[in-house]
Design goal:
Structural class: alpha+beta
Number of strands: 2
Shape: flat
Helix content: 40-55%
Mean pLDDT: 92
Distance between the termini: 25 Å
Order of helices and strands: HEHEH
Strand content: 5-15%
Number of helices: 3
Length: 67
C-alpha cells in the first residue's frame, strides 16, 4: 500500500491536524496507524462502522491534549 498521501497530509502544516481514516481490502491497519492515520477500516464494511470511526476521529481530534 502506498501511503505517500497520508505522509504528505501529516507533514503539511495546513493539513497535519486533519482526521484521516484509511480503508482497504487488505489489512494494512497497523501500518496505516503507524504512518499517522487516525483510523483504519477493512473493506467491506457496514455504514455503521464508518460512522462509528468518523465519530471516534472527531472526538479524538477535538481533545486538546491528544497524543
Amino acid at each position: 500500500m502506498d501511503l505517500d498521501l497520508l505522509c504528505a497530509i501529516r507533514q503539511d502544516e495546513v493539513t497535519c491536524e486533519t482526521g484521516v481514516i484509511v480503508s482497504s481490502g487488505a489489512d494494512f491497519g497497523e501500518r496505516c496507524l503507524d504512518e499517522g492515520a487516525d483510523s483504519f477500516i477493512l473493506k467491506p464494511f457496514m455504514p455503521e462502522e464508518l460512522i462509528k470511526s468518523i465519530r471516534k476521529v472527531i472526538a479524538k481530534r477535538a481533545t486538546p491534549d491528544r497524543e
